[in-house]
């Protein structure tokens, strides 16, 4: 996608009434990363090719008609003279500075953009370090280009360059984030959590938080009070929201969740491991509680029981910390139960116009005479007290497709939520945390339905494709191993199926009536005539062959496949899952008696990993076998009421000390 269109979509997204379709901070960062990588690539190519003019490079775009201008002699003289060594160094130095800025914004997105660029950019950091060994930007860039941090290269990846950068620039949290990610690859999750905690402190102290300006408040509060179209706000780069704090919260929550799962095995009693079944239930059917120390165990097993109890407390403590960070992460995004459908249609129309070349597509006048709608932070949906004005979920048309008839008129409102690439994984991780903190089954069921409600609404159109979610894979495995202990009313794939698009309920059926059978059906019929078999048999053979090929390709790209045995298991699991999905889709379509509703653009909703992960096994074991853990939460001491003889200054001093202690723990 050209960067001009990407920037236009980012501005359209920001000027859309809340909840905005996509997190504005992510889109603004993508625009900045694309621009920085393009400019750095341009400089690197010019330095490597002795080109003085940036017009002649035309790397990833450039000025329209630049090549024709140079052909007519209207451009600059590219190869009039060789560039001096000093000028080449300065160009590479500028390139490394731009790349360092891009990596600090989002190292994953920048790595993807860099891999799609020209080859000279890969040596920029190394060539700058040859002349200036202490250049911190070049060190940071060279760390990524020399050896992209991954689990396969974790042992040979040195943390020394990152440590030097952190020492020289203690007020920047990006290098701490990178070092924490590398530590997770080295299985040092405690060290990663410490780095991320320090990075969060640095981020909150030294970086200016994004404040809502007058234009933003106008967008959020006054857009529906006036029938006049407001002027679109174009934020300056310094005023754009940042994603760093959200990244740090998500990474630290994931690290805490992993630490909780690592302590599950040490907290299980040996008797339960031998029996292979939970002994956590008492004779009356209620879960057994943690031993309180009054019943003295045997002397030879007292130490073992103590260690198991401590491990179980660690599981719950780390899970609570992870839950807190995930809640803080999802609180950055919003949900509306009654967003007017003209707002969604207006956003889609403006995006379509931008793809056709319109630089500043104007919004419709009708969207600013609508009634106000309700907006909640997503974290409010998981509060202890449920919200009262939410639409019912799941409905009968979701559990049993075709059971509910289509409405006679188009609805005037719809559910909507802000999309973020990590939202689906964070929501499923939230469920894993609730399993580990032993949330009651009734409350966990409510949270589970809420996650399904949001996942089916998450739509990254027109920028993001739905990515695979390891947490969703783990959740599906846990539900299968625990035999759906919370009693969901339908399968997880059914509950999370992408919601139908607003406005176009009869689009597919009208198209089928107009255009007749699909090309695939026509091809199957022609093949059956040539081979003398039935069309249904040929179509079934083609479908099975296609599923087999897709399963093999998917297994080849699966990082968890390491030998022939895991490869076969991956292929078989993918084929089995595809058959189950086909059967569910066939049964649903046959029962409905018509064409399915138009789905959102991301149909492949992050297919699960086919091989059971250690995290899923640990959480499932905890759900099935762990006793109820008590005493994991430390009670806060009540503050003594100041007596008449106690001064006001002493009371204020005690309150300040308690606030400081609570802040340090969080």
UniProtKB/TrEMBL annotation:
Biased composition (Basic and acidic residues): 303-313, 573-582
Region Disordered: start-end pairs: 210-231, 267-313, 573-599, 630-666
Basic residues composition bias: residue spans: 633-642
Compositionally biased residues, Polar residues: 283-295
Positions in coiled-coil regions: none
Protein's name in the database: Histidine kinase group protein
